[in-house]
Every structure is written in C-alpha cells, then in structure tokens.
C-alpha cells in the first residue's frame, strides 16, 4: 500500500471511530500515529497537537493535516485531511435529515447521555498521555496549573495562555 493511501486509510479509521470531537480524538490519533505506525515520536506528536491548538480550525483536522504533511508533504496533508473528515461529513449529511425528526426521542437522548461521559474519559486520557511528556519538572507542572486556572476561572483565551506560556518558557527554561 502506498504511503499516501496508508495515511488516508489511517485517518479515515480515526475519523470513523472517534466520537466527541477533536480533543476526544487525540488518544486515537496518538495510538495510530505514534504507537502503531511509528510515524512520529510522542514528543513530535505533542508538538503537533500544540500547533494544532494554536492554528484556526478543528484540532483533529489540523493535526491530521500536519501529520500527513510531515510524513508525505503536500499529498500526505491532503490524504490526512480528507481521511479524517470524510466519514463524519457523510454521516452528518445523512443524520441531519433524520435527527431533526428524532431529537426528542427518549432513546436518542439516552444514547447521548451515555456518550457524553465517555467523551470526557477520552479527553482525560489524552490529557494524561500528553502530560507524561509535557510535565517534565516542577516548573512545567506550575505552568500547566496556571493555564488551567487561567482558562477555567479567569476565562482567558487559550491562544493567549499558549502565547504567555511560550514567553514564560523562554524565561524559565
């Protein structure tokens, strides 16, 4: 299988079996990109996730584009991007016409009540996985807690927090 096709199929699988949006997809992307295919190291993967958060657009699409580009340049980026969005595009097109008729259904509400905590678990597992590499010492732990506090309590924009953290990194590391 060509590298471009493999990138497409990998991100197609990620897009097809990931629920809950970008952050919930991070564990799936990590497993495929770092563990299964060894296309990136965990550190490279975390750097791509950080860049994907800072650039406009959904994190899953940005990260699939960056990973595809890193592996196979332009066509790798195209393959990764199309792969990750194709299944959700098709499903949302189909579901949109049916969901409006069933949105008040008890079964549909119950399904979503079950999916929401699972998505939270996926996001938490991504945070733990990334934290193992990102939190390298006490200073990085303090930065992480300051950012968490700044976003949750002070309602600072994540991009501002990342920019300030970069400046702090220049000073303390």
Report on this structure.
The structure is a single chain. With 173 residues, the protein is mainly α. It has a domain at 3-103. The protein contains seven helices and no strands. It has helices at 3-17, 22-36, 42-54, 59-102, 106-134, 138-152, 158-172. Helix 1 crosses helix 4 (59-102) and helix 3 (42-54) packs across helix 4. The longest helix has 44 residues, at 59-102. Belongs to the chromate ion transporter (CHR) (TC 2.A.51) family. Its main location: membrane. Pfam families: Chromate_transp.
Secondary-structure topology with pairs:
Layout: H1 3-17, H2 22-36, H3 42-54, H4 59-102, H5 106-134, H6 138-152, H7 158-172
Helix pairs in contact: 1-2, 1-4, 2-4, 2-5, 3-4, 6-7
Membrane topology: Multi-pass membrane protein
Main location: membrane
Subcellular location: Cell membrane
Mean pLDDT: 88
In N-to-C order, the SSE pattern is HHHHHHH
Total E-strand runs = 0
What coarse outline follows from CA principal-axis ratios? globular
Overall structural class, as computed from helix and strand content, comes to: mainly alpha
Given as residue ranges, the uncertain stretches (5+ residues, pLDDT < 50) are none
Alpha plus pi helix count:
7
Binned strand content: under 5%
Counting copies of identical and different chains, the oligomeric state is single chain
Largest sheet: none
Name the helicity range: over 70%
GO molecular function, one term: chromate transmembrane transporter activity
Pfam family, one: Chromate_transp
Family: Belongs to the chromate ion transporter (CHR) (TC 2.A.51) family.
Organism: Caminicella sporogenes DSM 14501
């Amino acid at each position: 299988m060509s590298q471009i096709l493999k990138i497409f199929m990998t991100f197609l699988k990620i897009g097809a079996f990931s629920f809950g949006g970008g952050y919930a997809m991070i564990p799936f992307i990590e497993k495929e990109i770092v563990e299964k295919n060894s296309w990136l190291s965990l550190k490279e993967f975390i750097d791509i996730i950080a860049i994907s958060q800072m650039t406009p657009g959904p994190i899953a699409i940005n990260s699939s584009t960056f990973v595809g580009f890193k592996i196979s340049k332009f066509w790798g980026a195209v393959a990764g991007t199309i792969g990750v969005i194709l299944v959700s595009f098709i499903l949302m097109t189909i579901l949109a016409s049916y969901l409006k008729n069933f949105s008040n259904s008890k079964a549909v509400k119950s399904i979503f009540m079950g999916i929401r905590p699972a998505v939270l678990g996926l996001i938490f597992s991504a945070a733990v996985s990334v934290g193992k590499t990102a939190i390298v010492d006490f200073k990085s732990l303090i930065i992480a807690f300051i950012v968490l506090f700044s976003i949750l309590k002070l309602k600072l924009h994540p991009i501002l927090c990342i920019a300030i953290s970069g400046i702090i990194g220049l000073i303390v590391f």
